[in-house]
Amino acid sequence: MRVALPASLSQLSMSIAMFFLNRIAIMAGGENGVAVFTSAWRVTMLGIVPILGMAAATTAVTGAAYGERNTEKLEAAYLYAIKIAFMIELGVVSFIMAFAPQVAYLFTYSEIAQVIKQELISALRTLPIFLFLTPFGMMTSAMFQGIGEGEKSLILTIFRTLVMQVGFAYTFVNLGLGLRGVWLGIVVGNMVAAVMGFTWGRVRIRAVRRALR
Known about the structure:
InterPro entries: MATE_fam (IPR002528), Membrane_Transporter-Flippase (IPR052031). By secondary structure, the chain is mostly helical.
């Protein structure tokens, strides 16, 4: 329950964050803004799929290492998962950004949808950037679950979604950046949260190592 309940609440926090991000997109670009955000987000979420698989594996392997009281194996699995996920995301983000016009066409082939095409291309060349550092935060959350500290994973998720993503997006839009402020806010918010989460993860592993000596 210490892992399962926070994991469920993490999903809830992400849904709440999406609600606020949609409201911010409406504030910045009206109905077209929501259409662009929804389309770009769907494409970007394809890049999350490999990370989710790596996160599930990280939880299992770090949990086994923790049960074995083998902190060297725990840290090695955690860092290796980040390394592999980062390499995967490097390819995914490069593909999306390089073929942004072609990907945007899938959502704007009709004459009516042409009005959002350029804005969607811009979004696809900005929004996926946050995927580069996502493995650092997501693998940390998975590692926390593996060692039975689901509440830390929940705190990290709430900090990333409701505090950083929504906070930066709202701030940038109010600074007059329009829809671009939404994309930049999500990117900056995720990256800040990822760096802080990774730092917390390394500190926690050192604490576990001292405790299990």
